[in-house]
Design brief:
Elements: H1 2-56, H2 59-79, H3 81-111, H4 121-166, H5 178-190, E1 195-196, E2 199-200, H6 203-226
Antiparallel strand pairs: 1-2
């Protein structure tokens, strides 16, 4: 009976913190979902430009349409820059805290013998609180990574666009089409995409960022488990 009382007391003490973190996670997930939908819309916008170009085959209309598309991409990137930075900081901190807490828990379990009351009801209540906290961190990390993957997808679509347009035949039978050549270089030189503080978010940038983050997390986890 005393174990149950202690467990309930611990759960009541942790309940306000869990509720606060859950609300913060819900707000962050809502913001992240909104960002993901915006980037999905931008990806559809770029693909619709390709559809209009293949239908009309008009290079003058293509230049005007691309001016609108790249202007919208630049405007959205500038407006969402702060939000993307918040998401970037959140996913870095969430992943680091999750691995640090997990490493410390594994170190505590491996360095000390399992107590008799390890599976007592008080311990079960405490483990439930830890699981909820870890679940919140995992949700934040997964949703944040989804946003950056969507943003990188928009940039990659813009990056592959010049080679696709170069395969079009604006004037049938003319191999050296100067109009097509102009449209290809115009799209390539625009360097359209999603930017974060002047950095173009592409697949290569995402791979490098994931590698650096993974190395940082592994370093923190190794240091925590070794006790250094």
């Amino acid at each position: 009976m005393s174990n149950v009382t202690v467990g309930i007391t611990l759960d009541q003490q942790r309940l306000p913190w869990l509720c606060l973190t859950s609300v913060a996670v819900c707000l962050l997930v809502m913001m992240v979902q909104c960002l993901a939908h915006i980037f999905t819309f931008l990806d559809i916008l770029v693909n619709s430009f390709i559809d209009r170009l293949t239908t009309s085959m008009d290079y003058k209309a293509a230049v005007n349409s691309w001016n609108v598309v790249q202007g919208l991409l630049h405007f959205v990137s500038q407006e969402l820059e702060s939000s993307l930075l918040v998401v970037h900081v959140a996913v870095t901190l969430a992943a680091s805290v999750f691995l640090l807490c997990l490493a410390m828990m594994l170190r505590e379990i491996s360095s000390t013998p399992v107590p008799v009351d390890f599976f007592s009801e008080a311990r079960v209540y405490d483990m439930h609180g830890n699981i909820m906290a870890y679940l919140n961190i995992v949700i934040v990390t997964a949703c944040s990574l989804r946003v950056f993957i969507k943003a990188a997808s928009v940039t990659e679509t813009c990056r592959r666009l010049p080679s696709l347009v170069n395969s079009f035949d604006f004037k049938e039978g003319i191999a050296m089409d100067q109009e097509r050549h102009y449209v290809v270089h115009f799209i390539a030189n625009s360097a359209a995409g999603v930017y974060l503080k002047g950095v173009r978010l592409s697949a290569s940038v995402m791979i490098k960022a994931t590698y650096v983050l993974g190395a940082l997390i592994c370093t923190v986890g190794t240091a925590a488990m070794s006790g250094s």
